[in-house]
Design brief:
The protein is of the alpha+beta class and 470 residues long. It contains ten helices and 18 strands. It folds into three domains: 95 residues, OB fold (Dihydrolipoamide Acetyltransferase, E2P); 50 residues, Irregular (Dihydrolipoamide Transferase), CATH 4.10.320.10; 214 residues, Chloramphenicol acetyltransferase-like domain (Chloramphenicol Acetyltransferase).
C-alpha cells in the first residue's frame, strides 16, 4: 500500500519546513525507519524518517523548497503500484493554492472585463484628444512590435516617449516663451555634457530634441577645450553594487518574527534596572577556575550568573511563572533558557533544574548545548520548556539594554558588560567592577515590588556568592 510522505511537525512550534536535501532519490528502495531527507525547522535541522517501505516513486518538493506541515512531499509505494490517484490529488491541491480567489461579490473573470472596459474608455479619451500623426493610432498611440526582450522598438524619427505609447501634440521647435523644445532626458544629457541645445537639430515631432539627437551631436562634435569653470561632477552609483538584495527568510527568522510580535505589543511589559558590584564574583570565578583547571573546565561570568539567577528564582517562585488567561502557572522547577546567537537567528538552549546544579556542571552543559545550537542539531526538548530566560550582550561591550520576553515566560534578564567605574564607597571615590542588569517583566504576572525583591536577591547572590548557600 502506498505511503504518503508528509512534511511532519518536527518541532513544537513548527508551521512549515524547508527541505535541506533528499537523502534518497526517485527509484531508490526505502525501508521503514530510513532517513530520507533533512528538514530545516524553525529551530534546528532535523531528519525526516520513512513511515513505510517500498520504492521512492515520486518527489513533489525540490531541495530548498518549503511546505506547510501536513503537505504531501513524496510517495513511497511498490514498484508496480498505481499511484495516479495520489498524483492527481497533489496536483489538484497545487492548482487550488496557485489560483487567486475572486473578490467578494465578484464573478470569476470579472476583473478582466473591468480592465478591458477601462482600456476602451482610455482609447476613446485619446481619440478625442486631437489629430494623429502618420503611423500613429488614435490619440497618438503607436502600435509597436516587441523585441524578444519585450521592450518596444521606437520607429525611425519618433521620440522614445511616442514609441512607448505616449501622446504629444504637434509643436514648433520653440514654445511660446522661446524655449527650445526637448525631452527631459535630452535636457539632462545635454547639461551633463555641456552641450548647447541651440546647436542641436531635433528629429522629433515639431523639431523636438530627443535623446537620439543629443547622442548624435556628441558623437559628431570635435573635442572641445576645457572650460574656464568646469561643471560640477555628476555622481554615478557603482554598477557592481546592487540597490537592494532580497534575502530569503529562514524558518527560524519567521518564527522569531511571529512569536515576538505576540510579546512586546500584547504583553504589558515594564522594566527594572539594577547595577551590581562584581568584584567579589570575579574573585570567586578566579578561585573556581584554578580548582577546575586540571579537569579542563573553565567557568565564565555567564555560568555564575545562571546559577545566581536560578538560586534567586527558587526563593521567588512568583517570578518563575507564566500567564495562562484564567490561571497563573507557577513552576516548582527552575529551567533557565540562555539566548545563543546563531547564523540567521537566535535560540535558547535550556539548563534544566539549574538551581540544583553546580557551576561546573552548568558550564559544561551550556557549552555543549551552545555548540550544537550553532550546528542546528538541538532536539526540541533541549530548547523548549524554559521558565525564565537570560540574554547576555556584555561580551559585545553593551552596557545596558532591554530584552523582549519570550512567551509564555513572564520575564527575561538582559545582562550588560562588566566594566570598571569610579564609585563612592565610605565617602571615598574608588574604582569597582560594575554590571547593569535589566529585567523585562510581564505585569500580568509580576508587580513592580515583586520584581524589585527578586532583583535584590539576585544582587545579593552576585555581590556575595556565599548568599547562594544560605
Amino acid at each position: 500500500m502506498a505511503t504518503k510522505v508528509y512534511m511532519e511537525a518536527l518541532s513544537p512550534t513548527m508551521e512549515e519546513g524547508r527541505l535541506i536535501g533528499w537523502q534518497k532519490k526517485e527509484g531508490d528502495e526505502i525501508k521503514e525507519g530510513d532517513v530520507i531527507a533533512e528538514i530545516e525547522t524553525d529551530k534546528a535541522t532535523m531528519e525526516l524518517i520513512a513511515r513505510g517501505s517500498g520504492v521512492l516513486r515520486k518527489i513533489f518538493l525540490d531541495d530548498g523548497g518549503t511546505a506547510p506541515v501536513g503537505a504531501v512531499i513524496a510517495v513511497i509505494a511498490a514498484e508496480d503500484e498505481d499511484i495516479s490517484e495520489i498524483l492527481q490529488s497533489v496536483a489538484g491541491e497545487a492548482r487550488a493554492e496557485a489560483a487567486p480567489a475572486p473578490a467578494e461579490g465578484e464573478e470569476p473573470g470579472a476583473g478582466e472585463g473591468v480592465a478591458a472596459e477601462e482600456v476602451g474608455h482610455a482609447a476613446a479619451d485619446l481619440a478625442a484628444s486631437g489629430p494623429t500623426e502618420p503611423g500613429l493610432g488614435a490619440g497618438g498611440v503607436r502600435a509597436a512590435e516587441e523585441s524578444p526582450s519585450r521592450v518596444p522598438t521606437p520607429a525611425v524619427g519618433t521620440s522614445p516617449e511616442l514609441a512607448a505609447g505616449g501622446h504629444i501634440d504637434q509643436v514648433e521647435a520653440t514654445d511660446a516663451n522661446g524655449r527650445i523644445k526637448a525631452s527631459p532626458l535630452a535636457r539632462r544629457l545635454a547639461a551633463e555634457a555641456g552641450l548647447d541645445l541651440a546647436t542641436v537639430e531635433g528629429s522629433g515631432p515639431g523639431g523636438r530634441i530627443t535623446k537620439r539627437d543629443i547622442e548624435a551631436a556628441l558623437a559628431a562634435a570635435p573635442v572641445a577645450a576645457p572650460a574656464a569653470e568646469p561643471a560640477a561632477p555628476v555622481y554615478h552609483p557603482p554598477l557592481e553594487v546592487a540597490e537592494v538584495e532580497e534575502i530569503p527568510v529562514t524558518q527560524m527568522r519567521k518564527t522569531i518574527a511571529r512569536r515576538l510580535a505576540t510579546s512586546i505589543g500584547p504583553v504589558p511589559t515594564f522594566y527594572l534596572t539594577v547595577e551590581v558590584d562584581m568584584d567579589r564574583m570575579l574573585e570567586v570565578r578566579k578561585q573556581i577556575n584554578q580548582r577546575l583547571e586540571a579537569q579542563g573546565i573553565r567557568v565564565s561570568i555567564n555560568d555564575l550568573l545562571i546559577k545566581a539567577v536560578a538560586s534567586a528564582l527558587a526563593r521567588h517562585p512568583e517570578v518563575n511563572a507564566s500567564w495562562g488567561d484564567s490561571v497563573i502557572h507557577q513552576y516548582g522547577r527552575v529551567h533557565i533558557g540562555v539566548a545563543v546567537a546563531i547564523e540567521d537567528g537566535l535560540i535558547t538552549p535550556v539548563i534544566r533544574d539549574a538551581d540544583r546544579k553546580g557551576v561546573a556542571q552548568i558550564a559544561t552543559e551550556i557549552r555543549e548545548l551552545a555548540g550544537r545550537a550553532r550546528e542546528r542539531k538541538l532536539a526540541p526538548e533541549e530548547y523548549t520548556g524554559a521558565t525564565f530566560s537570560i540574554s547576555n550582550l556584555g561580551m559585545f561591550g553593551i552596557q545596558e539594554f532591554t530584552a523582549i520576553i519570550n512567551p509564555p515566560e513572564s520575564a527575561i534578564l538582559a545582562v550588560g558588560t562588566v566594566e570598571e567605574k569610579p564609585v563612592v564607597e565610605d565617602g571615598e571615590v574608588v574604582v569597582r567592577s560594575r554590571m547593569r542588569l535589566t529585567m523585562s517583566c510581564d505585569h500580568r504576572v509580576i508587580d513592580g515590588a515583586t520584581g524589585a525583591q527578586f532583583l535584590q536577591t539576585l544582587r545579593d547572590n552576585l555581590e556575595e556568592p556565599t548568599m547562594m548557600l544560605a
